[in-house]
Structure formats: structure tokens, C-alpha cells
Amino acid sequence: MELELIKSKLHESNFRLTQEREVVLTTFMNSGQMLTPAQLHDCVKKEYNSVGLTTVYRLIEVLTKLGLATPFLIDGEIYYTFCSDHHHHHFVCLDCHKVKDIYECLEMTHKYDDVGTVNYHRMDLYGHCKNCERKNINVKSLEP
């Protein structure tokens, strides 16, 4: 998703995108993996030292409400990944925390008489990406 489109969505939500917030946003968009707010803050501070952790939390909160960030609970900690606003699912690597978007989807608009009508759904798959699987295989082959 283009930065200008995101800026427009933020503006429509009456969220002012300051220079600091824009640095946080572009860092988050380009990270390619899940990050905790503290990890994102650490990444941003390398480029823009004056950004506060509160700024990171506020931006993530707004992006989540707009459907542009998705939270994941892993080992008791909440991670976030940047998302487009199109419906999709996620494959999350438990080793490197990279997130791969999955656009194939089973339609879940069926009526389930015993529970109700499904309006929307979310599916996240957790496992090990091919790169981490190869690393683990290589490490195991070196073990005595």
C-alpha cells in the first residue's frame, strides 16, 4: 500500500501525521516482520532519536483501528505487523517473526444455524518459514 494512500486514510480519521509519526510509519511499513511497540521504537530511534514510545503506541493504535496493523499474541507478548486494508490471512514464522500474507481464502459467509451468521473471520497460521526450516535442518545435521 502506498504511503500517500495511508496518509489520506489517517487524515480522514483526523490523525495528524507529524514528521516523527511519518518516520515511525515508514519504518513499520518497511520492517517486513512483526514487531512489539518497543522493538519498533528501537528501530525508529536509530534514525530519529527524539521519537517517544508513546508516539509509537498511538500510531499503532490508530493503524489497528483502520485495519492497517494486525496484532498477534506470541509467548505472552503482543506483536504487530503492517497490513494492507484488503482481507487476507497470515502465516507467522515462530522463529524469525516474519509474516507472509495469504490472500487465498475460504469464504466463511455460511449461516451456521447452531451458532449464528458469520460476518467476517480472521485466520493466522503459525509455523516455521522455509528459511528457518533450512537453518534448523543445517544445525541438526551438525549435531553429533
From TrEMBL:
Keywords: DNA-binding, Iron, Metal-binding, Repressor, Transcription, Transcription regulation, Zinc. Fe cation binds at residues 87, 121. Its cofactor is Mn(2+); Fe(2+); Zn(2+). GO terms for molecular function: DNA-binding transcription factor activity; transcription cis-regulatory region binding; zinc ion binding. It comes from the Bacteria. Coiled coil: none annotated. The keyword Repressor applies. InterPro entries: FUR, Fur_C, WH-like_DNA-bd_sf, WH_DNA-bd_sf. One of its GO terms (biological process) is regulation of secondary metabolite biosynthetic process. Binds 1 Mn(2+) or Fe(2+) ion per subunit. Belongs to the Fur family. This is Zinc-specific metallo-regulatory protein. It comes from Desulfosporosinus acididurans. The lineage of its organism: Bacteria, Bacillati, Bacillota, Clostridia, Eubacteriales. The gene is zur_2.
